[in-house]
Structures are given as structure tokens and as C-alpha cells.
Design goal:
Order of helices and strands: EHEHEHEHEHEEHEHHHHHH
Distance between the termini: 29 Å
Structural class: alpha/beta
CATH superfamily of the largest domain: NAD(P)-binding Rossmann-like Domain
Number of domains: 2
Length: about 270
């Protein structure tokens, strides 16, 4: 696999770098960010963007969406395979800014550092198949890859990229409920985390509909149905669905803002 460079050593850039290791190059304009990764096995910290561009053939853009426009003039003068993980920045915007058809979008989550990310992948119609395969292999090294049409990325953000935070919030809420029942928080969190693992194992092994499994857990007049009723009274499903829509709407807004800068002259 060709040498990979990562621009940006924030949460996601660092997670991907730690997962890839083995000679991956990383640059961040903030020294403190670079120092966080210094000494991590396999990761090579470079001191300049020019050095990273010179020594890498595949570049992961792990910077904030609003930072990308300031980088385009420098990046677009280089012939690279570009991988963007910037939420809300479309392939069309990236192709224009980078002046390249060799552009692939990935949407991973922070579990990349544990090789457990769920990552959506989309490429432009003119991106060579070999490039798409290469990026898919890179993404597979830090989790599960889901090829997805780009217009579905907003929904993916709501149910995966952002949803990992929703699930962590749910873990905390359940653990706090355990604390209210007298279980110390660390032990309650351990129990809840293990239970989440049990839940995904059942879903994966049975292939059954989630609500079919719920009904099998709820005994008539039992403890679980009482809890389910409390969730229904609190509009649990509606609240979760609203969170998904809110994240997706934010992604659409970000993309619309970026698209406002595209002119007819820019279109490749």
C-alpha cells in the first residue's frame, strides 16, 4: 500500500493514525497536537505540510470543514489520491477545490482507534476503481466499510457518525439509573457496557427485528414492560429520531454553506 499522510491530528485524525500506524505520516499546524502523537509506534510526525505532501501519495484530510478552503491552493497543485473525512463537504466541492477526480469521502467514527469504526464510503463517478478499492482497504483497516451513495451521508451521520455520542449518552444515563438504585457508577457503567455488547451479539446472531426481540424479553406484568412503558411516556423513540434528524439537518446546512462558494466557472 502506498505511503499515507494525514493532515490534522485532532480526535479523528489521531484515531485513524493510531489504527494505521506502520509509517503513516501526520502533520498538524499546532505543535501541541503533533506532540500528542509523538512517540506512538509506527507514526511519523512531520514538521511541515510541504514535507507531508512530498513524501505521501495518499492524503487523508482530517481537518475541520471550515479549514479546507484555506488549504486548497496548496493542495491542488499536487497529484494525490485524496481522502476526506470532513462532514458536510461534498465530493463536488472537494473535486473543485482539489482540482482532482481522485477524491473519496469517508465518514468514520472515533472507534477507528480500536479498529471498530463504522465508515461510510463514497467516490465521484470519475474516480478510478483502483483508487476506490485502495481507500476501501484503508478504511477496512480501522473497522467496517459501508459503501453508500453520497446523498445518504446526512442520514448516516445521524445514525452512526454522530450516533456514537448518542449511545454513549445512553450508557451514561443507564449507569446513572444504576447509581440511583445503589450500584456504584464504575460498576454500573461496566454492566451497561457489557449489556450493550450482549445486545449487538443477539442482533447479529439472530438477524431478528429489534422489536421482535424486545417482545421476547418483555414478560406479561414483568419488570421490562414497566421500563418500556416509562420510555414510551418519555417519548424515547421520538427523541432519538429527532436527534438523528438534527444531526442530518446540520450536515445538510454545512454542505449548503460550502456549496455557496462554488461558481459555474469552478465546476470541473
Amino acid at each position: 500500500m502506498k505511503r499515507i499522510g494525514i493532515i490534522g491530528a485532532g480526535t479523528m485524525g489521531s484515531a485513524i493514525a493510531r489504527s494505521l500506524g506502520d509509517g503513516v505520516l501526520v502533520y498538524d499546524n499546532q505543535v501541541s497536537q503533533r506532540e500528542r502523537l509523538s512517540g506512538t509506534a509506527g507514526i511519523v510526525i512531520v514538521s511541515s505540510l510541504d514535507q507531508l505532501l512530498e513524501e505521501s501519495e495518499t492524503i487523508v484530510l482530517a481537518v475541520k470543514p471550515q479549514t479546507l478552503p484555506s488549504l486548497y491552493p496548496t493542495l491542488s497543485s499536487h497529484d494525490k489520491l485524496w481522502i476526506s473525512i470532513a462532514a458536510g463537504v461534498s465530493l463536488s466541492r472537494l473535486r473543485v477545490g482539489l482540482k482532482s477526480e481522485r477524491v473519496v469521502r469517508l465518514l468514520p467514527n472515533i472507534a477507528a482507534r480500536e479498529q471498530r469504526s463504522v465508515t461510510a464510503l463514497a467516490a465521484g463517478p470519475a474516480c478510478p476503481a483502483a483508487c476506490v478499492s485502495q481507500v476501501s482497504a484503508i478504511a477496512a483497516s480501522f473497522g467496517t466499510v459501508i459503501p453508500l451513495e453520497e446523498h445518504l451521508f446526512d442520514g448516516f451521520i445521524g445514525i452512526s457518525a454522530s450516533a456514537i455520542a448518542f449511545m454513549l449518552d445512553f450508557v451514561h444515563a443507564l449507569a446513572m439509573g444504576g447509581v440511583g438504585e445503589g450500584i456504584p457508577y464504575p460498576q454500573a457503567q461496566q454492566i451497561v457496557s457489557a449489556t450493550m455488547g450482549s445486545t449487538t451479539a443477539i442482533l447479529d446472531s439472530t438477524g431478528r427485528h429489534p422489536m421482535d426481540l424486545v417482545s421476547s424479553v418483555c414478560s406479561a406484568g414483568g419488570t421490562t414492560i414497566e421500563g418500556m412503558e416509562a420510555l414510551a411516556d418519555g417519548a424515547f423513540e421520538a427523541t432519538v429520531m429527532a436527534a438523528v434528524h438534527a444531526s442530518a439537518d446540520k450536515s445538510r446546512t454545512m454542505e449548503a454553506t460550502a456549496s455557496d462558494h462554488i461558481t459555474s466557472e469552478d465546476t470541473p
